[in-house]
Amino acid sequence: MIKSNDPTVQPIVYPSDYLYHPTYEWMNEVEFDAFWLVFPTFGPFTAGLNQQQSVTIPNDSDFECRRIAYHIDAATQLTTGTTIIPNITMLLTDGGSGRALMNAAVPIASVAYSEAITPIDLAWPKIFTRNSLITCSLTNFDGAATTFLVRITLIGRKIFSLTK
């Protein structure tokens, strides 16, 4: 609920599932560990080129992705004020469920962040099951520019089931 100091203004009440406060009911007791899932390097990209890379979730745990980060290797070293926002689309597919995470490829900067951009959380975390193959497809939609190497990292945590 959001309140105002003005008594004539009605408070704004959001439905319970509007704001992200994840709660899960695990069937077994679980333990968590921070984890970064790194795709092999993409690129270099010429205009219109599509490349795919895949990673497999380790078989010791499930993985909950909370953020996606990207890094562009430019020809020269960059500073924080020199941010490259590439004209590249991204499409992620979860081989474990057989589902794409988007209905169409989206510009990479709309779902991921780079070092100089404030980190953004996913709208809702995605849990990938152990041994799932995750495929990332990147397409350069710039008509003329060649983009250098691109690195994609899924950031989150491993979820270990503890058996009694």
Descriptive overview:
With 164 residues, the protein is mostly beta strands. The chain has a single domain (31-162), classed as Jelly Rolls (Sandwich), CATH 2.60.120. 0% of the residues lie in helices and 40% in strands. It contains no helices and nine strands. It has strands at 29-38, 50-56, 62-73, 88-94, 99-100, 106-107, 126-128, 133-140, 149-162. Strands 2, 4, 5, 6 and 8 form a five-stranded antiparallel sheet that branches. Strands 1-9-3-7 form a four-stranded antiparallel sheet, with no helix packed on it. A hairpin with a 4-residue loop joins strand 4 and strand 5 (99-100). It is globular and about 50 Å long. 15% of the residues are buried. The model has no long low-confidence stretch (mean pLDDT 83).
* SSE sequence, one letter per element: EEEEEEEEE
Sketch the major β-sheet: 5 strands, antiparallel
- The SS-based structural class is mainly beta
Mean pLDDT: 83
Q: Total helix count?
A: 0
CATH fold descriptor: Jelly Rolls
CATH class, please?
Answer: Mainly Beta
Q: What is the architecture at the second tier of CATH?
A: Sandwich
- Distance separating the two termini: 41 Å
Q: How many independent structural domains?
A: 1
Gyration radius, in Å: 19 Å
Q: Bin the strand percentage.
A: 35-45%
State the helicity in percent bands: under 10%
The poorly predicted ranges are none
Any idea what the shape is?
globular
